[in-house]
Amino acid sequence: MEQAESCVSEQTQTQITITLSLAMLLASLGTSIANIALPALAEAFSAPFAQVRWVVVAYLAALTVCVVIAGRLGDSRGLKPMLVAGLGLFAVASLLCALAPNLWFLIGARAIQGIGAAFLMTLSMALMRQTASEARVGRAMGLLGTVSALGTALGPSLGGLLIPVTGWRGIFWAQLPLAAVALISAFAMLPDGPSKGKPSSASLRAVLTRSLAPNLLVNLLVAAVMMTTLVVGPFYLGLGLGLKETLVGFVMAIGPAISIIGGVPSGRLVDSWGSGRVLAIGLALLAAGAFLLAILPNMIGVTGYVLSIIVLTPGYQLFQAANNTAALADTPKDRRGTVSGLLNLSRNIGLIAGASAMGAVFAIGVGTEDLVSAAPAAIAAGMRLTFLLAGGAMIVAIGVALGHCISRSGGRP
Predict the structure, then answer these.
(1) Which of 168, 212, 353, 412 is most exposed, with the fewest beta carbons within 10 Å of its own?
(2) Which domains does the chain have, with CATH numbers?
(3) pTM of the complete model
(4) Tell me: the pLDDT tens digits for 257-296?
C-alpha cells in the first residue's frame, strides 16, 4: 500500500512539475520571441524602430513592475488561483496580440501579456518550492532555470521559423494553444492550497528582511553580468573579431545551450552539497569567467571567448539554483510568493542595469558611441574594461555572500 501511495505521489509531482515548467516556459518565451519580429512589424505598420521597439519594452516593463504585486496576490489569495488567473490573462493577451489592428493596440496587448507573465514567472517558482520534497528542492529550482533558459533561447529560433510562413501574427497564435494547455493543466493538476480569507498581514518591509537582502543584491549583480555578455558579446564578436552574423549567432548560442544542459545537474548539487557551498562555487566561476572574458578573447580570439563562456555559464546555473533555494528555504508558506517576486524583481533590475549601465561602460571603453566605425583595437579595449568591471562586481558579490554566511553562522566563517 505504501509503495502504491509513493508511486501516486511521485506521478502527481511529475504532473505538477510539467505544469509549472510549461508556465515558466511561456513567460520566458514571451520575453524573446517578439524581438525577431521587429523588422516585420516595422514594415507591416510603416513605423520607425523607436516605436516598434515598444513591443518588446512594454512586455519587459510590465513584467518587471508586476512581479512583486503577483507574489503578494499569490500569498494573499492563493498561489494556484493566482497562477490560473495569470495563465488566463496571458492567453487572452496572446489572442489580442494576434488580432492587433494597429501597432499601439499590439503594444497595449503586449503590456497585458507581460502582466500575465509576471504571475507565471513568480508563482511557478513559489509553487515549485511549496510542492517539491525537501530532498529535491534544489533540482526543482534548477529545472526552472533550465526551462527559463530554454524559453529565452527558443524564442528567436521559433519566431524565425514562423514569421516567413505565417507572418508576424503567427508568433502570437503559437503561444495561444500553449497557454490554453498550461491553463487546463494548472486547474486540474495543481493542488489546492489553504483558503485565503484576507490579505496577508505581513508588509513588504517585513518580508524584505536583513537575511533576504543579500540574496537579492547578489542576484542583481549576477544578472547584470550575464546581460552584459548578451549586449557586449555580439559587438565584440562582429566588430572586434570580424565574424560573420551566422557565426556570431552560433557562438552566442553556446551560453544558452550550456544553461539548458546545466540547470538540473546544478540543482542536484544543491540537494547533495547544500546551497551555501554551491553558491560559493557558482560565484567563483562567475568571477573567473568575467575576468577571463577581459583577457582571453584579446589574446586568442574567438577560442578565448568560448572558453570564457564555458567557465562563466555553469557558474550562473549553479548560482541560480543555490540562491533561489537559499532565499526560499526558511520562508513561511504565506510569504513565498512575495519572496519569489522580489527575486524576479532583483533579477530584472540587474538585466536592465547590464543592458544600460554596462553598455555605457563598453562605449566609454571604446571611446565613441559610433561603435560601427570604431577600430577593432578600440572594441577590444571596451571589452577589456567592461569585463574587468564585471569581474569586480562578482568580487563584491562574493564578499556580500561571504559576509551573509558569516553573520548567519554567528561570526564563524
Answers:
(1) 412
(2) 1-190 (1.20.1250.20), 204-413 (1.20.1250.20)
(3) 0.73
(4) 887 787 778 878 888 888 888 999 999 999 999 999 999 9
